[in-house]
Amino acid sequence: xxxxxxxxxxxxxxxxxxxxxxxxxxxxxxxxxxxxxxxxxxxxxxxxxxxxxxxxxxxxxxxxxxxxxxxxxxxxxxxxxxxxxxxxxxxxxxxxxxxxxxxxxxxxxxxxxxxxxxxxxxxxxxxxxxxxxxxxxxxxxxxxxxxxxxxxxxxxxxxxxxxxxxxxxxxxxxxxxxxxxxxxxxxxxxxxxxxxxxxxxxxxxxxxxxxxxxxxxxxxxxxxxxxxxxxxxxxxxxxxxxxxxxxxxxxx
Length: 252
Prior knowledge:
alpha/beta, Rossmann fold, eight-stranded mixed sheet, 9 helices, 8 strands
């Protein structure tokens, strides 16, 4: 990812982060689609963690931890990256952040949020076993990953993302989760509202060829991409093969 993509308009004293492709960031207009795609899941989870003690593992920039803190009893954000850690601590002083390897973190929580990271893990089974131990018998974990069926280019078995160790089809992801948790509820993230209309326009009306032929691709997306919101995504259980991301709600 081009290092010229840097967060804009950060609060005084908060060092902006560069977009590297390893994690998504708010406050980068060109990245808004991916940021809102992640934010939609955080907001959905936040509606379900009232009264919970939550750890947000691999919290990155910290925006998701801040969303969870609106409803949870307590939130700790954990990330190993020194730049992300310092940024999160400065930008969200109301949240407790800890710099640690996610596989090593220990704490008193009953909810783990672990989004868009298990595909980066060398030993996902060990990671899920660790999460199960963290939440205890009455806890819940929310663990998401991209769906390789829609992430990878057509005809390819992998996306080509250099940060990903393993990418999952829905059935493979369910099987992984069921090796560790008795109760696995698997949902898919899909386009909604204007993103769904845009998707239909491309698939059925050839919109991608129209704007290229007429020569206004850049002006269109310069306006369209920053206007995307979290409401332009939705979670549901049906049709997982066509989902963008897979969210597993896990209970022992």
